[in-house]
């Protein structure tokens, strides 16, 4: 559904999208308004992520007809974003979780946080039609969205969407956090309007999500695990059990470890401070890490020819210190004429939760009853 996926659209845009006469759309929209499924909305007034400028009166799914929630579980955080069916973000909340938290504890906190967010937005729980949940690990979609063994969140091993649904009390779909970061940026962010893109998460690990021909690529165990691409067969041991993975050189913990001899134990904020001060050693370590990311991405570009590479994650705070080496490595390692645009994401730290919202909108059975 065009309105489900795109939010507010004018009648002319709907006609072009569907490839039908404007009069056909006008008649259909009139019936949907009568039934309370869609409402008139000035497209420029809808606070979606990527709209600007006055486009005239449009229509959107009736925001009061329901809401969906995106849930992003990180290593130490829980993020919840609540959207109505008109693609308006109506509330968002975030809390910190204990490192290595157990699923049972985290899901209890999540239900309370969702209820708190609904209360703040003045939306009854009965209006919540579904949730998209992101987790930093491989997901087996053929087995009720089962979380597979992961060293990042071992307390979630074996948990299924069925168990999460029972704890949260609403329909749930689950996917890998990098996949949903890609879906979020493709639906609302820097990759909106592209047919194919790679979203790389430059964070505590290096992950990626792929959109090909407008569709998020999903498979058993996850897709786009570029962090476990071998870049040096004699390199350090990775948490996955292999040697010389990209994660072992370019993840945030690896970068901080490389700087330990000069600066001792530092955290991400202190690393960014060093970069801001022009510390040559810090700039070199971060640039080298980014160059390796770009080299691995170049191989993916040679296979997929994406229109855009979108970089998200905590290391985006480093700005051009990571963006330029990634761009240079890609340009150096792929064929001429096929170099994709390399940009930062535009959704801030909500990219993954917004991907959860998009997944909930795309896959919820509620829409089948109004189609």
What is the H-and-E element order? HEHHEEEEEHEEEHEHEEEHHHHHEHEH
Radius of gyration: 21 Å
Spatial order of strands in the largest sheet: 6-5-4-7-10
Decide which structural class fits the backbone: alpha/beta
* Average residue-wise pLDDT: 85
User: What is the approximate shape?
Assistant: globular
Spans of at least 5 consecutive residues whose pLDDT stays below 50 are 43-55, 366-371
Give the beta-strand count: 15
Query: Describe the biggest sheet?
Result: 5 strands, mixed
Count of helix runs: 13
Question: How far do the termini sit from each other?
Answer: 8 Å
The percent range for strand residues is 15-25%
Helix proportion range: 25-40%
Characterise this structure.
The protein is an alpha/beta fold and 371 residues long. Helices cover 38% and strands 20% of the residues. The chain is built from 13 helices and 15 strands. The chain has a five-stranded mixed beta sheet. It has a five-stranded mixed beta sheet with strand order 13-12-11-14-15, with helices on both faces. Helix 2 crosses helix 3 and helix 6 crosses helix 13. The protein is globular, with a radius of gyration of 21 Å. The model is unreliable at 43-55 and 366-371 (pLDDT under 50).
């Amino acid at each position: 559904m065009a309105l489900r996926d795109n939010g507010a659209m004018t009648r002319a845009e709907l006609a072009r999208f569907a490839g039908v006469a404007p009069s056909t759309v006008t008649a259909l929209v009139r019936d949907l308004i009568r039934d309370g499924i869609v409402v008139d909305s000035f497209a420029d007034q809808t606070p979606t992520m990527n709209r600007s400028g006055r486009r005239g009166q449009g229509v959107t799914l009736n925001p009061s007809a329901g809401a969906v929630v995106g849930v992003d579980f990180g290593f130490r955080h829980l993020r919840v974003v609540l959207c109505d069916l008109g693609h308006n973000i109506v509330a968002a909340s975030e809390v910190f979780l204990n490192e290595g938290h157990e699923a049972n504890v985290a899901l209890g906190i999540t239900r309370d946080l969702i209820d708190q967010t609904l209360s703040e937005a003045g939306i009854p729980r009965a209006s919540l039609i579904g949730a998209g949940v992101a987790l930093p690990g491989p997901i087996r979609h053929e087995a009720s969205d089962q979380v597979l063994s992961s060293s990042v969140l071992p307390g979630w091993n074996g948990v299924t969407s069925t168990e999460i649904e029972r704890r949260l009390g609403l329909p749930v779909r689950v996917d890998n956090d990098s996949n949903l970061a890609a879906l979020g940026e493709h639906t609302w962010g820097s990759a909106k309007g592209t047919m194919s893109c790679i979203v790389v998460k430059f964070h505590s690990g290096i992950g990626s999500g792929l959109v090909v021909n407008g569709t998020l690529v999903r498979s058993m165990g996850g897709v786009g695990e570029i962090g476990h691409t071998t870049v040096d067969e004699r390199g350090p041991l990775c948490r996955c059990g292999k040697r010389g993975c990209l994660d072992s050189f370019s993840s945030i913990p690896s970068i901080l470890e490389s700087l330990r001899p000069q600066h001792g134990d530092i955290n991400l904020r202190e690393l960014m401070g060093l970069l801001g001060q022009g510390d040559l050693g810090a700039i070199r370590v971060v640039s080298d890490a980014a160059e390796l990311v770009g080299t691995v991405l170049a191989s993916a570009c040679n296979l997929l020819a994406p229109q855009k590479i979108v970089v998200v994650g905590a290391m985006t705070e480093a700005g051009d210190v990571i963006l330029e080496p990634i761009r240079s490595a890609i340009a150096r390692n792929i064929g001429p004429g096929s170099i994709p645009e390399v940009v930062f994401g535009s959704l801030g730290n909500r990219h993954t939760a917004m991907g959860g919202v998009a997944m909930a909108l795309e896959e919820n059975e509620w829409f089948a009853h109004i189609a």
